[in-house]
Design goal:
The chain has 2 helices and 6 strands. The protein has about 210 residues and is of the alpha+beta class.
């Protein structure tokens, strides 16, 4: 398409800018824009048609391949599932035995850990009890007895106290060590069998 720049060149002081100048220029621009729009429409239609035909061709070529692949995948999945089920059935006893062995091992480990925790707790309790008994052994204690002359407590001048409790047979049931504010520090509890024979003592730190 020819360039029309020279035809519509503007010369200072000579070109008259009126309808005779602008109307042909606008018609020329409109014509060219129209041609471009028509070309764009035709190009877009061609692209759309090419895309449509391409998709149809791809679908025609790939559809059988995809259908075959899906069939193969489904068949293999079914085969694998059957093989897995057969393997589980054949090894069910071994799996159950292995699981039971694993559970037993875990239980043994838990028992060992619990035993270690109990030992540490007992050691901690023994340490705390020893400290409290050492502290009370250094105090000046006054014996407190009831009307029958039975020892029921020991009272320190600084306020600490040891309280004794007994059962109906007069046997010592517990010894409770308290600080000056009356807070329980530690208690030793004694147990007896049905015949009144001593069986055990347990310390409990508060």
């Amino acid at each position: 398409m020819a360039l029309l720049a020279e035809k519509h060149r503007v010369v200072d002081g000579r070109t008259t800018l009126d309808s005779r100048f602008f109307n042909p220029l606008i018609r020329m621009l409109d014509s060219r824009l129209h041609d471009l729009e028509q070309a764009k429409i035709g190009w877009e239609e061609a692209i759309f048609e090419l895309r449509t035909l391409g998709l149809l061709r791809i679908n025609a070529e790939l559809a059988p391949v995809l259908a075959s692949a899906q069939s193969d995948i489904a068949e293999r999945l079914e085969q694998n599932a059957a093989e897995l089920a057969a393997h589980i059935a054949a090894n069910e006893a071994a799996l159950a035995e292995a699981l039971a062995s694993g559970v037993e091992t875990i239980n043994e480990a838990v028992a060992v850990l619990q035993s270690q925790i109990d030992d540490l707790s007992q050691q901690q309790t023994s340490f705390e009890v020893a400290n409290i008994l050492t502290r009370f052994s250094a105090l000046s204690m006054t014996l407190v007895k009831d009307a029958d002359g039975t020892l029921i407590a020991e009272q320190a001048t600084t306020g600490e106290k040891i309280v004794y409790t007994r059962n109906a047979a007069g046997q010592l049931v517990s010894e409770t060590y308290k600080d000056a504010a009356g807070n329980v520090l530690v208690t030793q509890t004694h147990s007896y069998d049905a015949d009144g024979n001593y069986t055990a003592s347990v310390w409990e730190v508060q």
